[in-house]
Amino acid sequence: MSGTENLSPRAARLREAGHKLTNARLTVLGVLEESGGHITSSEVLDKVEAIDSSIGRASVFRTLDLLTSLSIIRPTYLNSSMTPTYVLMPDGHHHHIVCTNCNRIIEFENCGLGAIAAELEERLHVKLTGHLLEFYGICEKCS
Amino acid sequence: MSGTENLSPRAARLREAGHKLTNARLTVLGVLEESGGHITSSEVLDKVEAIDSSIGRASVFRTLDLLTSLSIIRPTYLNSSMTPTYVLMPDGHHHHIVCTNCNRIIEFENCGLGAIAAELEERLHVKLTGHLLEFYGICEKCS
DNA sequence: TTAGATGCAAATAGTTTGCATTTGT
DNA sequence: ACAAATGCAAACTATTTGCATCTAA
Q1: Which of the residues in chain B have pLDDT under 50?
Q2: CA-based nearest residue in chain A for residue B135
Q3: pLDDT under 50 in chain A at which residues?
Q4: Do B112 and A108 touch (CB under 8 A)?
Q5: Phi/psi at A25 (nearest 5 deg)?
Q6: Which pLDDT belongs to residue A4?
Q7: A12, B5, B12, B14: least buried by Cβ within 10 Å?
Q8: Identity of the residue in A76, A127, A138 whose CB atom sits nearest the CB atom of B137
Q9: CB under 8 Å to A1, separation ≥6 — which residues?
């Protein structure tokens, strides 16, 4: 391979942070990006296996950890339990509503948290890179 | 035991939701309440074991699931990985900042999400019972 | 009294490790 | 060239299950 061409923005971030763009990493990233924003670790494992069965489980987990440390994805508990669901953080943030009865996820845009983030950065001397906002409640069908 | 006296508000919610107030449940609840708001499942397991070793692991997990379904607590990924950290949702909500470098947690009050919640309830026909807001970034010491 | 909850111990599932080998840059 | 990353398979850890027994209401 030659240069810097054709990199997805997330792949570019990986490289900029000093990590190699390996086949395992790019495959995991591709699976995440095609997921629509919510995918469990075992779904990632299955899809990666289907695409290239030579990629080992350990590398998938290592990649998920790496992407998490870069705030490209974030693990959260959405289904029953045990396995994390990874959420893509497209512009550094993600929001949804979880029905605590049927586990349905309702996405929404626009959380209006920019002002709060700015205030926290100044008051607490932190540099914020993203956020995840989850509301819990009962969806229309369950009420 | 006789009646309805001396129940913590959370225990009362359990009973109101139609669940029995058993020794295992009250012990787990006590451990959570003494935790200061953040505690991993294995810490809960250890503390419950120390208080009453006759309580089985399975009941601890069953209680954590039950409390989660009632939005009394919420599992989230805060440390390295694998084990969830349960967060108490005192007034139905909880907020913090996670340093993505050192994993330090910085708590803050006041998220100003009441208005957003009300708007979502009306627009999406849901009944919201709580929320969790996590910011990710770099803390003062790590920058 | 009795549906609901428990404790046990075994089974399952999910994740991590160590290390020799391979690969991006 | 060489530090970084990989794949493997075994080890580990965390959680769940089935069921006979117990208990809160």
Answers
A1: 1-2
A2: A131
A3: 1-2
A4: no
A5: -65, -45
A6: 58
A7: B5
A8: A127
A9: none
Nearest residue of B to residue A66 by CA position? B100
Closest CB to A134 among B108, B131, B135: B131
Phi and psi, residue B130, nearest 5°: 180, 175
User: Token match 């708007």: residue?
Assistant: B119
Q: How many CA atoms lie within 13 A of A132 on its CB side?
A: 24
Domains in chain A, please, with CATH? 1-88 (1.10.10.10), 90-143 (3.30.1490.190)
Q: Average pLDDT over chain A, rounded to whole?
A: 91
∠B58-B64-B66 over CA atoms, to 5°?
Answer: 100
Structure tokens at A142: 């369950």
CA angle B60, B29, B84 (to 5 degrees): 55
Model pLDDT, residue B1? 46
Of A123, A106, A107, the closest CA to residue B135 belongs to: A123
Q: What is the reported pLDDT for B142?
A: 83
Q: Which residue is nearest to nucleotide D12 (CA to C1')?
A: B82
State the pLDDT at residue A1: 47
DSSP-derived letter for residue A77 is -
